[in-house]
Design a protein that fits this description.
This protein is an all-alpha fold and 170 residues long. It contains 8 helices and no strands. The chain starts with 8 loop residues before the first helix and ends with a helix.
Length: 170
Amino acid sequence: TSNVRYTSVNSLKSFNHLSHLPWDSNLQHILMSPQSKFTTVTLYPTPYLMGLEAFRWFLRSEFSEENLEFWLACEDYRSTAESQLGAKAHGIYSQFINSQAPQEVNLDSETREAVTNMLRDPRADAFNNAQQQIYTLMSKDSFPRFLRSSYYQEMLVCLCLGRAALAYLS
């Protein structure tokens, strides 16, 4: 992170109408933005995409990026064709839920067991309870800290500079 210290996040947000960021206090908005499903890099990232990526970097710094990755994988799984559910369910289980998973998420034993049992006959809603647990964890724990972090402050500065540059070029 940078050594630059900002006077306050509120003073940054007042610059160039940034006080109306849709995900400013609600994790659901940043996760459900249309750009959260994009995997390609754009020349001019939107505030949604910048917010999602800043949140991802913040989680990475706290060694909890797997929570966001799991949540996004569950969203992708929900829209999977029925013929592909089995393979994708096993992939998510291997990546995030198995006790030896490389990105194991923190689920209670009851939910973990329910997901394990579901692997025999996976449905589109198979990960709903597990996804909700991880969402609650991020919403109540990680996201409030993110809003106070230097990652959030630096993202606001980038948005301010980007909007100022676009206004100048117009």
